[in-house]
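Researcher: Here's the sequence for the chain we discussed earlier.
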Amino acid sequence: MNKIMPKRALVSVSDKTNLDLLVPILVEKGVEIISTGGTAEYLKKMGAKYTPISEITGNPEAFGGRMKSISFQVSSALLYRRDHPTDMKEAKELNIKDIDLVVCNLYPFKEVAAKENISRADLIENIDIGGPNMIRGAAKNMQWVTVVTDPSDYETLATELKNGGATFELRSKFALKAFSLTAQYDLAIATTLAQEFQADFPEVFSHDVKPLRYGENPHQKAKLFVLDNQKEKMSLAKAPILQGKEISYNNYLDSDQAYKCVSELALAFPDREHCVIVKHGIPCGVSSSTDQFKTLRTAWECDSTSAFGGIIAFSSTVKSEAAEWLTQQFIEVVIAPSYTPEALAIFAKKKNVRLVEVPLKKRDSHEWTVRSINGGILWQEEDEKTTMEFRTPTKKSFDNTKNDITKFGLIITKYLKSNCLLLVDEREGAFLILASGVGQPNRLECLTLLAGPRMKQKDIPVNDAVLVSDAFFPFRDSIEEANKWGVKFVVQPGGSIKDPEVVAACDEFGMAMVLTGERHFRH
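Model: Thanks. This is the structure I predict for it:
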């Protein structure tokens, strides 16, 4: 447990909330409290004894409070390693006494910045310097020092101190929270001052920032910020570009869809070759077989019109036959784990084609995705769900020989824009997309206006194909429409209050349905 009961605590807070829950316990346990400025006055009113920080630093508070805690003595008391012989020897020689608890929060920069007509001088004065220094020093030395930055955690800490001291589990939890606080604080300062000085958005997410020619449209500025938002060290954002023009903002968005989809297919079917073609964020051609060139041609023929100018991702080393054929087409980007020397020589004839070399994304990379909205950023886990329940509620059983093509379709729907309906089949040993309807606010229209007419246009039999939905059918109307097109196998998550009606419709038309128990929206 490695419990540590502090002997000396540095208390310096802007927000005094809940101090009354913690300070009495420190006093009761005989902890020496060191304090500064307004916090010291607050402690005095509480009747708690404290040591002015000037007695520790050897210097008075100065420059209107800008200098209080920043000192060799304070930082040393926080940072030196209590189990390191040299550190301990130096601390003794320098008369450094431990500070093993820091209770600190920061000047209210965000709150001040949010006020109307705030002056630049007030903004600047509310940039905390000493606070982040103390917080980071204490958090770095979490092995020996406790740092608490959130007033809502004071009661938890008080309870632990009553029970003998702060455990390492609690110290590490608080340290992570502290680093998060200082990161958010610096981000708020950087973005606010960028607006104040009418500068570009600050490069706060990463030291690796790449300006792009423009954003979604030529009049929009854009940059690529490289994030460490997954376990894997290599990512699409970091991948080397072997040849070609600069990759654009839209190219990156399409490449992300193609790369993730082909990676997941490779994980599900490691003995097959996979090819994914994406256009405007939507996989328009996807195929899987035991031969790379066959897979490429089949994926292209899924929707050759949309494939024109598309992004193409492969699951294995690109060979010369595929490269030769692709140089006869108009394509933007090729993504693969590697390329043969012969393939690179062939692609060199098309100097504008971008070649990206990146290992396939691994299972459970724990990626976090980031999207912006007006005034905010949305973070979420990437949809890495791979377990699939196959439950058949219909009278007609679902043919077990269709399990692989069903899994193939379910993976692809994860990368289609919701609402989506996808028809997949196996032809001459190749899995492929027959037709799809995506991005419609009305699920029925995915079939009536898009997937259905595309099937009719291609004049393809669909009695052995599988229709996959990314979310449940809210009504039986989609089943009625699917029956008109000759569909006999349907896959959906289930979970609607209308599930019994949907199942009854399938039974009425002699259709088999599988429920997976998991939806896969992609907005």
